[in-house]
Specification:
The complex is a heterodimer.
Chain A (H helix, E strand, L loop, with lengths): L1 H9 L10 H33 L3 H12 L3 H15 L3 H4 L1 H24 L3 H9 L4 H35 L8 H9 L6 H29 L16
Chain B lengths: L4 H8 L1 H35 L1 H16 L2 H12 L3 H25 L3 H9 L4 H32 L13 H9 L3 H29 L16
The chains are: A mainly alpha, B mainly alpha.
Chain lengths: 237, 225
């Protein structure tokens, strides 16, 4: 069985064309990066606002609770008929997965941004005000750098979630690496097992790469002064 | 009045909705129950043998990052299309939630309380069952809530393993295959409502069982894919 998977993965035929690994990996990464970027654009400003002003904190926590309960398959399914009505192509194969990915990635980023800003020692912010920093300077010079480790933890959590949901999108016709898994299951008795397992290996590799990327990013972005101070938040997806 | 079209379809399939909802709850319950038992043992080991603590937590964290579709698929080649293929990944995903919550619950017992128990001559198992477990109850219950809700969501994905599984996810997949949005929603909306209902019920239960632990919080703040 392992031999079959290795054979599939080393077969040049599986590395070219629209169903080849580079194309599928490209689709997977493209939709993940785009969805994550949109989720960050939504979640960061809102998280900053809530963290800075303290307004709407309970809303943020409730949102996170609600999100926890959302089955991702159901989210894609609910979006599908709506976007398909607008666009027969992308509305069918791309948007439902992308929308679900954004919906599921916003809460961990938002909540961690809020928690990161909230968790900053109030004396530091006061000291900043004391030396005459404006609110904007406080945000970019004090709060943002100090909150970075926690925020990146949230983004990492959202990213792993996004990669997993993109995989699930294959059930609903999206490409990406999940395609191999879904097609492999569909042709399981006809020798689809190797393709399916190759898909599993590729997806697992992408998840590990994602984790490593964000672990590295976290180390690079964390100000040296607070590097020992690690966030205790677990990072499941 | 004769019912026609979509509404007639919905009314016709209400008994099947009941059956699939029951299946959904059953598949989730088996996983949460098994996951709890395994996690309890792992958490006791982790707390008793400090060296095992970090590896056990790291391993359960790692399992959590594997996309569910990939995990189900990987198991098909080992256990075929069977109940085991459904339950093993579901159980694995509950581990990270339970182990962390139970171990943190044990950890939260103050050292002098443990010493007092030892001083009273409690044996190891007496101390576990009469002191550590009762004091860890708030976090254990919080873990139950989170594990149940996340498992409910994952059960929908088991529909890819065939019509005998999937709970409410069955309608989602069949509705998609038949390009029939009514059936798609017939599965998607109840599965979301089921998750919300279980969350609300367990939150209430949490308040009843551990009224002193308010607000009841879980240590793991996020859910599975």
């Amino acid at each position: 069985m392992i031999g079959d998977v290795v054979a599939w993965l080393t077969d040049p035929a599986n590395w070219s064309g629209p169903n080849g690994v580079p194309a599928r990996l490209g689709e997977h990464v493209a939709i993940s990066v785009a969805s994550l970027a949109i989720a960050i654009l939504i979640a960061l400003p809102v998280g900053f606002y809530i963290g800075h002003t303290g307004r709407g904190a309970s809303l943020a926590v409730n949102l996170a609770n609600l999100w926890r309960a959302l089955p991702s398959l159901a989210v894609i399914a609910i979006v599908l008929p709506i976007t398909a009505a607008f666009d027969n192509q992308a509305g069918f194969f791309v948007y439902p997965t992308a929308v679900a990915m954004i919906v599921l990635a916003v809460p961990p980023i938002l909540v961690n941004t809020y928690a990161g800003i909230r968790g900053i020692d109030a004396d530091l912010v006061e000291a900043g005000r004391g030396v005459g920093m404006s609110e904007r300077q406080l945000l970019t010079g004090v709060e943002l750098p100090l909150a970075v480790p926690v925020i990146v933890t949230g983004i990492r959590s959202g990213a792993v979630q996004v990669v997993a949901t993109a995989t699930l999108g294959a059930v609903f016709g999206f490409g990406g690496l999940g395609r191999y898994i879904v097609d492999g299951i569909g042709r399981f008795s006809l020798g689809g097992a190797a393709q399916m397992l190759a898909g599993v290996v590729l997806v697992a590799g992408l998840v590990i790469a994602t984790e490593l990327f964000f672990a590295l990013l976290q180390r690079l972005l964390t100000p040296r002064a607070i590097q020992v101070h690690r966030s205790a938040t677990p990072t499941p997806a | 009045m004769e019912l026609t079209g979509d509404l007639a379809w919905v009314v016709d399939h209400l008994d099947e909705l009941a059956y699939r909802t029951l299946q959904h709850v059953l598949l989730a319950s088996i996983a949460v129950g098994m996951g709890f038992l395994i996690s309890f043992v792992l958490a006791v080991v982790a707390v008793r043998r400090r060296a095992a603590y970090a590896p056990i937590l790291a391993l359960s964290d790692l399992l959590y990052t594997i996309p569910s579709l990939a995990l189900f698929a990987a198991l098909i080649s080992v256990t075929g299309i069977s109940l085991l293929t459904v339950e093993i990944p579901l159980v694995m995903y509950t581990l990270v939630i339970f182990v962390r919550n139970i171990a943190t619950g044990f950890d939260s017992v103050p050292a002098d309380v443990l010493e007092a128990a030892d001083g009273l001559g409690y044996t190891g198992s007496q101390r576990l069952w009469r002191v550590e477990v009762p004091l860890a109850v708030p976090l254990i219950v919080a873990g139950f809530r989170l594990a149940s809700v996340s498992t409910i969501g994952l059960v929908t994905i088991t529909s890819i393993l065939g019509d005998s599984f999937g709970g409410l996810g069955f309608f989602i997949l069949e509705g998609y295959r038949r390009s029939f949005p009514v059936e798609l929603y017939f599965g998607a909306i109840p599965s979301i409502l089921l998750a919300f209902a279980v969350d609300a019920t367990l939150t209430r239960l949490q308040r009843v069982i551990t009224p002193w632990a308010n607000p009841p919080r879980s240590v793991t703040a996020e859910a599975a894919p």
